[in-house]
Amino acid sequence: MSHTGHTDEKYYQAMPSRSLSERLVIAARDRIYEDFIRCCRPAPRDTILDIGVSDVVNDAANMLERKFPHPERITALGLGEGEEFRAAFPQTAYVRIEPNQRLPFADKSFTIATSNAVLEHVGSVRHQAFFVSELVRVARKVFISVPNRYFPIEHHTAIPLLHFWDASFALACRALGKAEWTDERNLILMTRNRLASLAPAHAVIAYTGLMLGPWSSNMLLFAEDTGSA
Q1: Fewer beta carbons below 10 Å: N end or C end of the chain?
Q2: 167 — phi, psi (to 5°)?
């Protein structure tokens, strides 16, 4: 999550408020939330850790805090001071963390750990593996969602189709003045195989968001430690 604040600002600047793109993102995140509820089955007393929340406050950001009926059961983590987030979600605890560092919680401190559209921004494949392992360490259930590389429109740049291949995506980004998205410190385009390579052995990988089969907008990773008390 080394560039989450920068990423949020760039991402939401490219998605104007009340635009078609924002409505599609909201529709995708509504489906992701439904899958979160279906997989994790959160009870009112469960504790939830939400890693990588946004300090950009709009109708498309911070899905869990907007929709979950027990916001006081959520602890949200972010890289910034979280002033706008705290003001928008006063019932939710906010903790500032450092990028790519061990989370400041004991093993299995939470019922559920979740992140949405964060894993692709943590900075390297090694950091991605560490990120997933930390969520697995601190919670009994883990739900991670990421954009799917093979959705026809690339989520961060709005470039169609050319992001299917590294060379054409790099060329298009340079031509459009978006070269920062070719730096893995800002973005690693996620495929089903890449997500599966980061998952615990018992995890489920599936499509979510706007459902188009292999071209769906998002993917999810769900893992549950059934041996934990």
Answers
A1: C
A2: -65, -45
Best CA proximity match to 30, nearest among 123, 164, 138, 145: 145
Spell out the alpha helix ranges (H) of the chain.
4-13, 20-40, 63-67, 83-88, 125-138, 166-175, 192-198
pLDDT higher at 138 or 201: 138
The partner residues of 146 in beta bridges, in order of sequence, read: 219
Looking at residue 2, its amino acid is S
Q: Which CATH topology does 4-224 take?
A: Rossmann fold (3.40.50)
Indicate whether this model's pTM tops 0.85.
yes
Main-chain phi, psi angles of 177, to 5 degrees: 70, 30
Residue partners of 38: CB distance under 8 A and separation at least 6: none
Terminal CA-CA length for the chain: 30
Q: What is d(CA 110, CA 142) in angstroms, rounded to the nearest whole number? A: 10
Q: Quick one: tokens of 40? A: 């994790």
User: Each residue of 25-83: pLDDT tens digit?
Assistant: 889 999 999 999 999 999 999 999 999 998 887 777 899 999 999 999 999 999 999 99
Q: 161 with 152: CB under 8 angstroms?
A: yes
| Residues 153-175 pLDDT 10s | 999 999 999 999 999 999 999 99
Per-residue pLDDT, 15: 53
Is the sign of the CA dihedral 1, 116, 57, 96 positive or negative? negative
Cα 95 from Cα 200, distance rounded (Å): 26
Bridge-based pairing of strands 93-96 and 110-116 is: unpaired
| Amino acid found at 143 | F
